[in-house]
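Anyone up for a design puzzle?
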């Protein structure tokens, strides 16, 4: 595994100048450069994680999202808040769902009328809501509302994908309500 300790050991012990084959020497030098970059990136990721956890403790919207929505952690809550910026941009939960790309789009041709998922919208918000939905579905609890809602939609005859879309819409509504409440109390 590429742990910082293993990378450091490799960088100290392997010397490309000691290898006489020019191709192997170039390869070792390339690996050393990449490992040095990887070590730097791992340090930056650790710093960002630390800063994000500190921001999550200090921020009331992040705390509210984590408290009110099962499966919403620091990273997901920070992603939602950073991408939404200001919830007051949206008057209704439907506008927020359209922004996230969760609201279905009506398409029709002649007598055929169908609902499709929107390929548009903010993909980062959509991904965050998708992550929350998958967490809620995967948790096996007797009183897990996300799983209960998902199974209810399956029992209604919906496909798994469509039931997941319905759950994402419910989570989107919950995020909207939580952020709207936090905005009104601030």
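Challenge accepted. My sequence:
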């Amino acid at each position: 595994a590429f742990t910082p300790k293993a990378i450091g050991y490799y960088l100290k012990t392997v010397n490309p100048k000691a290898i006489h084959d020019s191709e192997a020497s170039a390869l070792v030098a390339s690996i050393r450069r990449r490992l040095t970059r990887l070590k730097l990136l791992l340090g930056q990721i650790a710093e960002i994680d630390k800063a994000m956890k500190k921001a999550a403790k200090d921020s009331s919207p992040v705390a509210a999202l984590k408290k009110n929505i099962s499966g919403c952690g620091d990273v997901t809550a920070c992603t939602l808040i950073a991408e939404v910026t200001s919830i007051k941009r949206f008057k209704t939960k439907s506008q927020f769902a359209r922004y996230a790309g969760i609201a279905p789009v009506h398409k029709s041709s002649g007598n055929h009328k169908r609902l499709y998922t929107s390929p548009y919208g903010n993909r980062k918000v959509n991904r965050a809501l998708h992550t929350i939905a998958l967490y809620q579905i995967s948790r096996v609890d007797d009183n897990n509302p996300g799983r209960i809602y998902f199974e209810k939609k399956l029992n209604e005859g919906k496909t798994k994908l469509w039931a997941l879309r319905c759950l994402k819409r419910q989570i989107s509504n919950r995020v909207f309500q939580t952020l709207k409440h936090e905005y009104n109390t601030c």
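A detail worth pointing out: The helical segments are 4-13, 22-58, 60-68, 74-84, 93-100, 123-138, 145-155, 160-185.
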